[in-house]
Each structure stands twice: as C-alpha cells, then as structure tokens.
Amino acid sequence: MNPLLKILWLLGLSLWINNLLYAQETLKKEKIYTLSAEEQLAYNENSLGVYQDELGYIVVTAKLTSNRTSRTYHIQGKSYGPYDRPVVDKPVFSRWGWGFIDSKGEVSDIVVNGERIGRHKEPQYPLELKMSQGAWAYLLYDMLTGNSIVKYNGKEYGPYKSLKNCYLNHKGDICAIAYSNKPGEYKLFFTHDRSEVGPFLQILDFKFLEGDGNRWVMTVKKTNDAFTVVTNQGEVGSFSLLMPGYTKEAANILAEGVNYGMPVRHEGQIYFLANDELYGPYADYPKQVSFGKAFNRFNYLLGEQSDFYFKGEKGFSTNVEKYFLSESRQTVAIIKQGQGKQDSLIINDKDLIGLFENVEYVKFAPKSEDWVLLSNRGGGSYALHFSDGRSLGPFNLGAVKQAPDVLVGKGCKNWAISYTDNSGNNRLIINNEEWSNSFLGNVVIIAEGGQEYFSWFSIEDRTIYLNKLIL
C-alpha cells in the first residue's frame, strides 16, 4: 500500500474508533426490566406502556394468561404488582409526582409517589385518582349502595348519591366536589371553608384557575335551553346551548393558567367570552384559541380570511393557516398558505422570514425564542429549518402515516426526529444519526448536573432500557 494512503487509512480508522468510544461514553443505558416469555408492554390496555418526562419514568408490563391479564408497574427502580383489574385508568404522571389505582382480585390499592395511601376491598371501588402540589384525591364508589365518597388527603367527604367529579386547584390546598343528593339539584362543595354553590339543574364543566385565592369557573344549567357561566366572583351571564356550526360541545371551558374562555352565542350572535368579558360579535366561531401565562393574553383565528387576533383585536396578518407561540409568548410564528406548495413564515405579525414547502409546524426551544420549522417535501421527505439560518435534510422517512415529531434542546443546537415507519417500527434520529430502531414511547429532554440529555426507551432482546444521550 502507498505509504501516504496507509497513513490516511490509519488516521481514518483512529477517528472512527475515537468517535465510537465517544458515543459509548456519552450514551448512558439503564436497564429497567427484562420481559419473560409471557410478558409484553401493556400497550393494548387503555394505551398503557411507557411514560417519561424530566421528572422520571413509568413502564407498565402485562402478563398474559388463559384467564386474565395481570400488569406490573416499574417506576424509578421499583416494581409494583402484579395487579389484574379488568379495566384500568392510565397512571397519573405530572410535575407533582406519579400514582395509580389498580386491583388484585377484590382488593384495590392506591399508590402515590411510592407510598400506598389507600387499600379498599369490594364493595368499595376506588376511581379517578387526582394529584396536585402536595395533594391527592380519589373517588370511592360503593358497589352495593351506589353512593360515593371523596377521599382528599386522607379525609372523607360524603356520601353522595350522585358524584360528578372532584377537582384539585394547582396549589393542592382546595378540593371542589360536584355532587347531587336530589334529582335535578347539583351543588359544588369546597373543602377548605365548607361553602357551597348551587343548586343547579346540572353542572356541565368546572375548571380551577391559577393565581391567588380560590379562583374558578364553571358552566351550569339553570334552565333546559341555556347554560350559565359562574365564577368565584358570581354569575357572568347566560348563553344559548344551541350553537349551529360549532364542532365542539357548547359550554366546554377552555382554560390555561390564570385565563379562561369559550365561544358563545348571545342574543343570536357569536362572541368569544374571555375572563368575564365578551368580544365580538363575529360572523363565525373563533378557532385555534391559545392562552398565555399572563392575565388576558390570548389569541385566535377568525373569519373566512383567517385573520389573526390578539386579545380580541385584529392583527395585521390574514389568510393565516396556523400559528405557534414561544413559552414567553414574545414570539409568534405565523404560517400563511401561499401559491402551490409554498407557505410563508411571518414572525411577530410583521417580519417575513421566507417561503417553505408545506409547513407542518414550528417548534420553539424550551425557555427560548429560537425555533425549528418542519417542512414536508412530499413522498415521505422532510426538512428542518432553524431560526439561525441552518437547513437540514431532506430526511427520507418513507410512507409515514403522520408527520414526525421534532424535539429541540437549548438554543435548537441539538435536535431529534421520532416517527413510525410504514412497517410500524418506531425510529429515532438525533443530530443526523439514527440511534435506535427499537425505540419506544417518546423522547424527552432531561437536565442532570447542569448537563442536557435526550432520553428515550428501547427494547433489545426483550430487555427494556432507558437511554440518555449527553448533548
């Protein structure tokens, strides 16, 4: 071999080995569980399976027998089970922790953050676990009497002949219970001061709002042809239950943080009710409603020309197909459908960034105004376009059934694409490299010791692993 070619070959081999060693050093694999021959992930049961976010993970496995299916929960290095309740809800998994309700035979357990907070034997049947900051609640149905009670942080409330639901505020210090002990008489009871609101013919919807004090909003029926909006400040108004052309159920409350709203019909005209104020009248129902964290920050599209609205006022952009907001809501990315396959991207209702093929969506990096745009070039070909001017792709994913999911890290420096191929296999690409064709669930970003990771599950030789890739 030519000496120069030999040197170049050895240099290339050395670089390849170094890259391989670096990848091995930066990919952490944690073994979660090895499935036996009779076990599988519990995807077929109410979409159970794998869950994860920056706080941790839950893996639910199922063991199939001739008579019934039993399941086990694998959470933060411990296993709980086996359980065999015929119909089971998904585990609760939120920023406040995790929990589940399940049964073995006639005995049901309620487990919250690794502690069994309740155990009940039939005819008592627990349902609907709720969790909030430092608080938990669930419903306990008596299969003999048909009555229900609410268990809230260890205290019992009830019994109630008809229990619609219970609700926890975001601080966890107030529980609201919607119930009826007489036909056509529904009331709302608050545990913190034992006050009640009502009675009403029916309670349709209820939401706690964030902020100081006991802030809430609900929709109720006082007559059969209208619904009334009631808040902690009193009645806001009554509106028609008949909403021709509205594709969602009337009286459903849209709420986020300190804000609430909903399209309504009042005296035959369409309005948008937001935080006790009516905006309109309009010729059509607002669509793509979005609320911010600050009070009275909301947007929607309206009319035949899809005009973009800020807090009930028309902006500059028309013919808006869709829009996306950063966490701070300081940046809004507006997509306008153009000629042919070309869509235009406008930032903050004024700056035209450029034209892109069939924009699927725009995603913002966490706590950042940086963004990535996913364009669909047709035939399973996609491309990424970043706010710093980078463009990557095309990525030829084949005949996928839906657009791939894109996740970006801090400043959009690192990115991941996850998708299901036309054979039903889950696939994962991170920073232009395919990492696993045995990818499970979703991809999340985790911060440990000031370092950012992409994290995902995989299954290899029937063993489930949690993978963390340093960024």
Task: Spell out the key features of this protein.
single chain, 471 residues, mainly beta, five-stranded antiparallel beta sheet, four-stranded antiparallel beta sheet, 1 helix, 5% helix
Protein architecture, described:
With 471 residues, this protein is mainly beta. The protein has a domain at 359-471. Helix content is 5%, strand content 59%. It has one helix and 45 strands. Strands 2, 3, 4, 5 and 6 form a five-stranded antiparallel sheet that branches. Strands 1-45-44-43 form a four-stranded antiparallel sheet. A four-stranded antiparallel sheet has the order 7-8-9-10, with no helix packed on it.
How do the helices and strands line up, and which of them pair or pack?
Blueprint: H1 3-26, E1 27-34, E2 39-41, E3 50-53, E4 56-64, E5 69-75, E6 78-83, E7 92-94, E8 97-104, E9 107-112, E10 115-121, E11 124-132, E12 135-142, E13 148-152, E14 155-160, E15 162-168, E16 175-182, E17 185-190, E18 196-200, E19 202-208, E20 216-221, E21 226-231, E22 234-240, E23 254-256, E24 259-266, E25 269-274, E26 277-282, E27 287-291, E28 298-302, E29 307-310, E30 313-314, E31 320-325, E32 332-337, E33 342-347, E34 351-357, E35 359-364, E36 371-378, E37 381-386, E38 391-396, E39 405-408, E40 415-420, E41 426-430, E42 433-436, E43 439-448, E44 451-460, E45 463-470
Antiparallel strand pairs: 1-45, 2-4, 3-4, 4-5, 5-6, 7-8, 8-9, 9-10, 11-12, 12-13, 13-14, 15-16, 16-17, 17-18, 19-20, 20-21, 21-22, 23-24, 24-25, 25-26, 27-28, 28-29, 29-30, 31-32, 32-33, 33-34, 35-36, 36-37, 37-38, 39-40, 40-41, 41-42, 43-44, 44-45
